[in-house]
Amino acid sequence: MPIHNRFADLHAEITEWRRHLHTIPELDFDLPKTSAYVEERLREIGVDQLETGVAQTGMVAVIKGKTDTSGRVIALRADMDALPILEAADVEYKSTHDGKMHACGHDGHTAMLLGVAKYLAETRNFDGTAVLLFQPAEEGGGGGRVMVEEGVMDTYGVQEVYGIHNMPGGAVGHFAIRAGGLLAAVDEFSLTITGMGGHGAAPHEAIDPNICAAHMMLALQSIVSRNVDPLKNAVVSVCTMSNDSSVFNVIPQTVQLGGTVRTLDGDVRDLIERRFRKIVEATAEAYDCGVEITYDRGYPVTVNTEEHTGFAADVARKVAGEQAVDDDTPPIMAGEDFSYMLESRPGAYIFLGNGEEGATVHHPEYIFNDDAIPAGCSWLAGMIENRMPAA
User: Fold this and answer.
1) What pLDDT, on the 0 to 100 scale, is given for residue 246?
2) 260, 288 Cβ separation under 8 angstroms
3) How far apart are CA 241 and CA 205, in angstroms?
């Protein structure tokens, strides 16, 4: 099953959809124009069932195969939201929403799933039911979690779920995947360290929270280097530091630190949080400072189940060829809320090459590569047709 001829035929139309979506980027759950456009296309396509207003602005489209002797239900997911970034790319379809842009390729993911909807509704060459999930708020809002909590998987009887994401740096039309942890759990922390302000010329009359904060920053690095198994992956990054003074001779009253923790293993995630709290509290006590800790657990690890990863890789090889599929790609410490869907159902998440040149995701000059559309659509459709072959 190489690239479907039908997707070669639909390439220009899907590209047009993608570029229109690129002009109207919207954030989080607030996607009125995006969801209206997607809904209009799905109604034109003629899906068998369409539910809107899922997770506020998401939707679920259902397409039945020619037969349903298998009773199988497979879901495919696309994310629809953009990022609060001012676009710098010089393209004719540039964002018309100032300060917002599709800097992660969700316009491409959505357009590809629309293309797959059109193809499946035309051919219905499978035995079972395809459920297409158009999700808002992947970029930090947890729209995937909300869709699961609203009962999408149970309502539609989903048995497996699959997703795709473009990968800058990978050759166009190539695929990369791995079983197990593919993307990291994402936790965030903020610390407010309180001392006693004073004159910079008389530090002995103050309690300097800067010194305490500096020692915390250094000590927190020991968690990964001295507590985490060196054969496992983890990141602790203090990314922000600020205080309540901007004067060169004033010791501030408070200092704020903020950052992120990334892990690929649940036990390591628990270990880091325990060590983090103990180090912060003990360091504050050592320097006679108070500290307020906010530690928020975000997206869990995106875990591909082994059986379904193998199947996804096989379909990718049918589309792109043996040499164009890496089925043991290194994990990435970025996060993804498709993880919630994979916690609720077995499945897999795969990367699609977006080109070896050009900006990476979350960059103001990033652009989704339309040349990747036929391969991405072929893989998505292939997951339906191969996982639920026609009777």
Assistant:
1) 87
2) no
3) 23
Q: Who's near 28: CB < 8 A, 6+ residues apart?
A: 81, 136, 137, 139, 140, 141, 143
3-state secondary structure (DSSP) of residue 361: coil
pTM, full prediction: 0.95
pLDDT score, position 145? 98
3: confidence class by pLDDT, cuts 50, 70, 90? low
* Pair of tokens at residue 28: 């989080």
The answer to whether the beta carbons of residues 110 and 386 sit under 8 Å apart is: no
Q: Which stretch of DSSP H or E encloses residue 274?
A: helix 266-286
Q: Are strands 58-64 and 49-54 parallel, antiparallel or unpaired?
A: antiparallel
The residues, ordered by sequence, that sit 6+ positions from 33 with a Cβ below 8 Å of its Cβ are: 24, 26
Measured between alpha carbons, how far is 177 from 328 in angstroms, rounded to an integer?
A: 6
Q: Do domains 5-182+301-387 and 185-297 have the same CATH topology?
A: no
Tokens of 284: 């504050």
CA distance 4 to 120: 12
The pLDDT, as a whole number, for residue 1 is 46
- The residue ranges of every structural domain in the chain are 5-182+301-387, 185-297
In 39-140 the beta strands, taken as DSSP E runs, fall at: 49-54, 58-64, 73-79, 129-135
What is the CA 219 to chain-centroid distance, rounded? 30
Euclidean distance between CA atoms 92 and 107, whole angstroms: 15
d(CA 113, CA 33): 17
Residue 161, amino acid: V
Give the model's confidence band at 2: pLDDT under 50 very low, under 70 low, under 90 confident, else very high. low
Q: If one looks up domain 185-297 in CATH, what number appears?
A: 3.30.70.360
Provide the CATH topology of domain 5-182+301-387: Aminopeptidase (3.40.630)
Mean pLDDT of the region 111-123: 98
44 vs 244, higher pLDDT: 44
The rounded distance, in Å, linking the Cα atoms of 303 and 80 is: 22
Question: Is the distance from CB of 207 to CB of 194 less than 8 angstroms?
Answer: no
Provide mean pLDDT across the span 363-382: 98
How far is 215 from 191, CA to CA, in rounded Å?
A: 13
Distance CA 199, CA 248 (A): 10
Give percent above pLDDT 90 in the chain. Answer: 97
pLDDT given at position 384: 98
